[in-house]
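HUMAN: Now follow token order:
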Amino acid sequence: MRIAIGRSSTTEIAATKEAWKVFSASLTQDTHEEVEFFGYSISGTPAQISLSVRDLMSVPRECVETLGLQLKRARTEADYYVGLESGFNVVDAQGPRRIAFLESWAYVSDGHRGHFGHGGGIVVPPGIADPVIDRGIDLSIVLDRFSSEQEISSEKGLWGILTRDILSVQHAFVVALIAAFAPFYNLRAFP
């Protein structure tokens, strides 16, 4: 069994492996079948952080579609293709009550049909969200400034900063992946 992941980051690969352990017995008949996880760099992935649910959903879907074509050109395929994206879901973007949520999304396809999963969300403080949304400042720069001003740090990125290291982006991706794979491993609920 081959699982192709549209990012080569260790976080995305580790999240996919962790999620796979949760439901793989419900998905495969042969529990001893070797499963290989491959991360691929996909050209054309956006450099800017996603700022809407539309972007959070379209980026991983487009990643999976591009990955499928890339592997077909290389004369190889996978059993499942995985795309992941974390970013902001900005609600009431132009209004006085603007609020940004950090969210993580997954899209999984078997090459014929695909499904989304969402890994939950957490409110992003205006001190972090506003410079990213209003001025287009890279999130990593904003986080460096915010962390030094607040005397906090985290190896788990923004998820870690906001939850005092209880959650990480990997945790959020695991939940999103379990949800995205559900139609494949739970055929009774998703005929």
